[in-house]
Specification:
- The protein has two domains: 3-50, no CATH class; 53-138, no CATH class.
- It is 49% helix and 8% strand.
- It is built from six helices and two strands.
- It has a two-stranded antiparallel ribbon with strand order 1-2.
């Protein structure tokens, strides 16, 4: 079985699937893109899986560092404890936007941002975390448009 075969089969919920994209929230919210992400319809929703095990590992490392560095600023629970949806959105969407700004990238392509961070800083731990966490903490979701309830 190839890597793509495993990514294309989502039994039940892909969020618990081993190939689930770590940054699926920003991708689904259209805050970011990723050249390695594959979208699959599952019932009435859309799931996002990663086509590269190496990229998924790098993104998992970035997500863990974001959680560690922004834990105090966002009042997040200890690692291993579940995040509320709003906390996860702020952490991942704001983190990707913060990384994009810190690296001066034109597009928030998750895979490209991680590769650029490794290239420029040697590792993800060498990033300008003060700047990234500041942007992350200030990130707010876009407002919904449409009629308001009376």
């Amino acid at each position: 079985m190839t890597e793509d075969d495993g990514a294309s089969r989502c039994a039940g919920s892909c969020s618990g699937h081993e190939a689930a994209c770590v940054f699926r929230r920003p991708l689904l919210a259209r805050t970011a893109v990723c050249e390695l992400a594959a979208r699959h319809p599952l019932g009435e929703r859309e799931v996002v899986v990663c086509r590269s095990a190496v990229a998924r590992t790098n993104c998992s490392t970035l997500a863990a560092l974001l959680h560690e560095r922004a834990r105090f600023a966002l009042k997040l629970p200890r690692p291993g404890r579940p995040l509320l949806h709003a906390q996860a959105m702020r952490l991942h969407c704001g983190g990707i936007v913060g990384l994009q700004r810190a690296l001066g990238a034109a597009v928030a392509d998750v895979h490209e941002l991680v590769a650029t961070a490794h290239e420029r800083h040697g590792s993800l731990t060498g990033l300008p975390w003060d700047q990234i966490v500041g942007t992350l903490a200030a990130w707010l979701p876009r407002r919904r448009s449409g009629p308001r309830a009376p």
